[in-house]
Write a structure and sequence with these properties.
Shape: globular
Strand content: 25-35%
Order of helices and strands: HEEHEHHEHEEEEEEHEHEHEEH
CATH superfamily of the largest domain: Fructose-1,6-Bisphosphatase, subunit A, domain 1
Number of helices: 9
Number of strands: 14
Helix content: 25-40%
Radius of gyration: 18 Å
Structural class: alpha+beta
Length: 277
């Protein structure tokens, strides 16, 4: 399968996410029925009726618009883990997180997003992060930049913050899933930043860092539906990201951590400040 994503195709996918959010996510926000929230692997790993319903709508829409594509949704992969293994060999695949920040959504906190990324033969070529409450979508096309697209077609470009020393950086460092002793090391060094936030939502963390409102992100677990779209958004906005060992990001690699910073020099400074013994 050969597929080129232009801005028209990007807008079509953004519209699909918006329609799914309007139909399946927002009507359930702060109105989840009893039994509509379930735990998967722990108290912060939740799934709701909104996640499952939105993923079904998005997957069906992608299959119609891009016949023959592989859709790897977070909830579908939870039910069938072998689905994730097909990503490496797919000519065209989409990874989908229907509600990123489900714990926030379930708690009635208005901080969640809907994410999708297009992967051609293992390479991320397009990404979308939709904000259901703001009703706009951050979009990135590989080699063509990143922007926020409103329903009326208005576009606003995204650009990362100017490089800054660690003591002047604002960051969202997700230390919860780090193994010890790295977990304690990173958590204890948060005061080295000018300020730190914990959004519990990669979708909004990536939108903030791509828009220049944060300098630094740090993650440990790298499931592709959580990071492929945001990584491309940050890259196309001018940022630099790499695994803890300096290797480039790949949606086929699910561990090894990820640091996002404005440029390579500030990435090196941040990695040393938070990871070095």
């Amino acid at each position: 399968m050969s597929q080129r994503f232009d801005r028209h195709a990007a807008t079509e996918v953004a519209t699909l996410l918006r329609d799914a959010a309007r139909a399946e996510i927002m009507p359930r926000f702060r109105r989840l029925a009893a039994g509509a929230v379930r735990s998967k692997t722990g108290p912060l790993d939740l799934v709701t009726d909104a996640d499952e319903a939105a993923e079904r709508v998005i997957a069906a829409g992608l299959a119609t618009r891009f016949p023959g594509c592989l859709v790897v949704g977070e909830e579908a992969a939870a039910a069938d883990p072998s689905l994730l293994g097909r990503l490496a060999d797919a000519d065209l695949a989409f990874v989908v997180d229907p509600v990123d920040g489900t714990a926030n959504f379930a708690a009635g906190l208005p901080l969640f997003g809907c994410m999708a990324a297009a992967v051609l033969r293992g390479e991320v070529v397009a990404g979308w992060i939709h904000d259901p409450l703001g009703d706009d979508t951050a979009v990135a096309l590989r080699g063509e930049g990143a922007w926020v697209e409103a329903p009326d077609g208005h576009h606003a470009p995204l650009t990362v913050a100017a490089p800054a020393p660690v003591e002047r950086m604002l960051g969202d460092l997700s230390w919860t899933y780090l193994p010890e002793p790295l977990r304690g090391r990173v958590a204890s060094r948060l005061p080295r930043l000018a300020g730190a936030v914990g959004l519990r939502c990669a979708a909004h963390a990536y939108r903030l860092v791509a828009g220049g409102h944060l300098h630094l992100l740090l993650f440990h677990r790298l499931m592709p539906w959580d990071h492929a779209a945001g990584w491309l958004l940050h890259r196309e906005a001018g940022g630099h990201a790499a695994s803890f060992d300096g290797q480039p990001y790949s949606p086929l690699r699910h561990g090894g951590g990820l640091i996002c910073a404005p440029d390579a020099a500030s990435w090196e400074e941040a990695r040393a400040a938070f990871l070095d013994p």
